[in-house]
Structures are given as C-alpha cells and as structure tokens.
Amino acid sequence: LSVTTFGESHGPAIGCVVDGCPPGLALAPEDFRNDLERRATGRSRHTSQRRETDEVEILSGVYEGLTTGTPIALLIRNTDQRSKDYADIAERFRPGHADYSYWHKYGLRDPRGGGRSSARETTMRVAAGVIAKRWLQQRHGVRVRGWLAQLGPLTPAAFDWDAVEQNPFFWPDAAMVAELESWMDKLRKSGDSVGARVNVLAENVPPGWGEPIYGKLDGELAAALMSINAVKGVEIGDGFAAVSQRGSEHRDEITPQGFLSNHAGGVLGGISTGQDVLASIALKPTSSILIPGRSVNVRGEPVDVVTKGRHDPCVGIRATPIAEAMVALVLMDQALRHRAQCGDVAAVTPRIPAKP
Ligand code: EPS
C-alpha cells in the first residue's frame, strides 16, 4: 500500500492517492464524513476557527461503489482560505515553525496559511486512513481507535471508551471535561499553546504482521506517526518507561490462556504477537502563538514575531483521528505484505528444529 498527499493549506484543493488497496471494498464519499468531521477545525472553541466543508470527491479507483484495485484518488476543495497572518509570516520565520527549515531547504515557499506545512495536510491522511480502517475491519475484524491521553499537565483519572467520542477533546474521562474546557479557555486567553499526548490502540491484530529486520511493524509505526505535523516523540507499548523497568517486570509472561500483560505493545521482534498494538505520540505546543518571540527575517535581520491567524492552541486536540489513520495505514500495508510473503501460513506444518 502506498499513500501520498498533495496540496497547500490555501491552494485550491488538497488530495491524496492511495495505491494498492485490494479490489471489492465498498467505498462512497459519505464514508469519509465521520472521521473528517472528528478531525476538522471549528468544531469547538478550542481549535482553529477556520471553517472547511471537507467534502471528499472520489476521482478514481472506485467503480459502482467498489474499489477496483487501481489507484484511489481523493480530492477536497479548500473553501475558507483567508489568512490573517500571510503578510506577517511571508518574510519572517515563526520561531518553532517549519517556515525556517522549508526556506533553507527550498529557497522559496508558499507561506499562505502555512502552505504545505500546515496541519491542513493531515485531512488527507485521515481520508486515506478511512480506507485502511474499513479494509482492516471487514477483512480482519481489526479495530483502530485512539484517545487524548494527556493535555499539558492534565491526565485522565478514569477511562471509558464511550466518553471519548462525546467531547471535543477525545478525552476518556467525562468527569474531567469541564476542567479541560476552563484550562483551555485560560490558555487561549493567555495567547499561548500547549502540547499533548495521543494514544492509539489496534485491537484484534493477528500475530505475524510486520517484517523481522527492515520494515518492522514498530519501526513503520514510528516513522508513520512521527511524520504527522508537530509530533516529537513516539512510544510503542511502555515506550520510554522501559528505561527504568527490570526484565522481570517488562517481559510479558505467556500462559496457555495467553499473555499476562502487554508491556511490549503487541510487537516482538518487529512482528505482531496477536496482542493489542498500542502506540503513543507526543505533540509539541503549536508554534503559531500570540506571545511575541525573537526571530529573524529572510535577510537575517532580527525581528519579533506574533502570529495572529486562526490557529490551534493545542494541535493534539484534533490529532486522535490523524494518529488512528496512520496506524491503520501501516497495519493495512503490513497485512498485505504478510499475505504476499507468507500466504496461507496455516498450510505450513509447524516444525520443531532438530538438535544439531
Ligand atoms: C494551521 C493553521 C490554520 C488551521 C490549520 C492548521 O490554517 P491556515 O493554514 O489557514 O493558517 O486552520 O488547520 C486546518 C486548516 C485544518 O483543516 O486542519 C497550521 O498552521 O498548522
């Protein structure tokens, strides 16, 4: 499976091409609505107030409601591209923003609303992820879903899947939502931004997905998740907590009834174990903020930068569907690769190696 996206935040449209999806999957424009709505701006006062319709047009790869096996091209036309900070940021680099590195790489850039580096691009990742989620669910019964696991200093005190979809944060603890609302209101008024952690769980993943050395399942997940805007860290299972653990604590003991724990996050040696796959990402605080910061302009002169446009005080709030999409795309890719190499592995008679 391969996925690429195109388009800029303030260009006429954004889109993606998903190549390698098997034929026969039912797919219609309305199938994209729910996840695109979950990720969209302007759905609460805690996100950017840009209003996009995010209506998907299927340009290719689907005939009479079924995927044909040819590349699937999806398009979303941008409809609300006005930008308050265009003139300001065309010449100066926002500290902490890709403005700086894009300029030094290409020597020119499209600064309209962040151009290609805008989180607008993640819309198409979510659209592509809808295809992967559908295929995984229908073909393998795999379910991929996530939640906001930390917002600045706040962590959930309870966990309930039903709560996750009932608040604008994807927060699993309904009793804390009011606290989050007022915390975010205060932050927004201060003109600052904050980081967040998003977790994604993939349930019902069969054992055997992933490559043993190059293309490890956890390696591919890390690369895919790290490629999301603003992501600065990825953990699989216990992740960095493993640093202070002992082997006797971290190993997941196995009984005839199954594993007794899941510190590994469902992956051993780059291959799925049949346990739930758990990935976690750290998103940095948004760099486009109202608090002046020192920087330079394209001529290297010192400037102060304040960013006034329609920006998110916490990109992590909208990142749950994006992270789910990237996990689903990696899992679908690995499922197809596994099928290509191992085919019907059940037909292979298990062999205990002979003693040398
Ligand atoms: C973003 C800045 C804002 C957000 C945008 C992400 O847009 P603009 O490009 O107009 O400045 O509204 O998010 C979206 C448009 C979206 O659909 O997610 C940024 O700097 O990343």
From TrEMBL:
Keyword NADP: yes
Sites where the protein binds FMN: R116, S117, S118, N229, A230, G269, K284, P285, T286, S287, S288, R310
InterPro entries named in the record: Chorismate_synth, Chorismate_synth_AroC_sf, Chorismate_synthase_CS
Highest taxon above the source species: Bacteria
Keyword NADP found: yes
Residues reported in the UniProt entry to bind NADP(+): R39, R45
PROSITE patterns the record matches: CHORISMATE_SYNTHASE_1, CHORISMATE_SYNTHASE_2, CHORISMATE_SYNTHASE_3
Assigned EC number: 4.2.3.5
Pfam family, one: Chorismate_synt
Cofactor note (record): Reduced FMN (FMNH(2)).
The entry's keywords: Amino-acid biosynthesis, Aromatic amino acid biosynthesis, FAD, Flavoprotein, FMN, Lyase, NADP
Co-factor(s): FMNH2
Reaction(s) this enzyme catalyzes, per UniProt: 5-O-(1-carboxyvinyl)-3-phosphoshikimate = chorismate + phosphate
Molecular-function GO terms, alphabetical: chorismate synthase activity
Pathway where this protein functions: Metabolic intermediate biosynthesis; chorismate biosynthesis; chorismate from D-erythrose 4-phosphate and phosphoenolpyruvate: step 7/7
HAMAP family the record matches: Chorismate_synth
Family to which this protein belongs: Belongs to the chorismate synthase family.
Quaternary structure annotation from Swiss-Prot or TrEMBL: Homotetramer.
Functional summary from the UniProt entry: This reaction introduces a second double bond into the aromatic ring system.
Name of protein: Chorismate synthase
